[in-house]
Amino acid sequence: MHLVLLPQSSKNSQYMDFFPVSSNMTTDFLFEKSANYFPSEEAPQRAAALLPKAKIITLLINPSDRAYSWYQHQRAHEDHAALQFTFFDVISAKPGAPGSLRSLQSRCLIPGLYSTHLERWLTYYHANQVLIIDGHQLRTDPATVMDEVQKFLGVTPHLNYSQALTFDPQKGFWCQLLEGGRTKCLGKSKGRKYPPMEPQAHAYLSKYYREHNVELSKLLHRLGLPLPSWLREELQKLGAVKLLKEADVMKRQRRKQ
Predict the structure, then answer these.
(1) Would you list the DSSP string of the chain?
(2) Which residues does the record give as 3'-phosphoadenylyl sulfate binding sites (predicted)?
């Protein structure tokens, strides 16, 4: 999740001390990013009290993939529970399991309850202050996503990301295009390749997130927003034909606008 500070969106000097000195406070945008804000029960209210005019950008990927990615992230950082237990052991841990295992389970599973967390943020921020990005589209078509982000923020002049980015086959994702055709990519910790998720774990998570994904589709429909590609796939697996038809109607209406 990103908190975007619009010009003059906060006059709290203590908070602003965490940011570099802006060259132009009337036009510059400041960003704060944290994976911990989105699922927090306290963060939305506190953020709104401090930054009522901020804009919120949240990136949603398939919650099953997000859970697995966090597990692998913790393994890379030598978390004891992640190294000791398999992914399925973690996500299926029972209430009597060791505290370290239950803590890791919570960090894997709870952030993926997207509709619950979005509803909480929308309690304190108007829907037009919140941008929801399809994580799969950002990976495959970043220029289009960044065009949407710029429109959402009102950035001028508009940067053409289709000319600023190029796909790096060695890295496996899009990177900044520099002069002379050179590329500048994110560090080694980004874009790690993991072993495939165990089928047992995949089935468990599909069931675990089923109702939450349905609720997310209803929320996005209510907001008049398109469904992320991964969510459409999950609904198709559930046979949620009505929800998909409603999403298609909304998509056609958005194109006409």
Answers:
(1) -EEEE-TTS---HHHHTTSPPPS-TTT--EEEE-SSSTT-SSHHHHHHHH-TT-EEEEEE--HHHHHHHHHHHHHHTT-HHHHHS-HHHHHT--TTS-HHHHHHHHHHHGGG-HHHHHHHHHHHS-GGGEEEEEHHHHHH-HHHHHHHHHHHHT-SSPP-HHHHEEEETTTTEEEEE-GGG-EE---TTTT---PPPPHHHHHHHHHHHHHHHHHHHHHHHHHT-PPPHHHHHHHHHHT-HHHHHHHHHHHHHHHH-
(2) 69, 174, 190-194
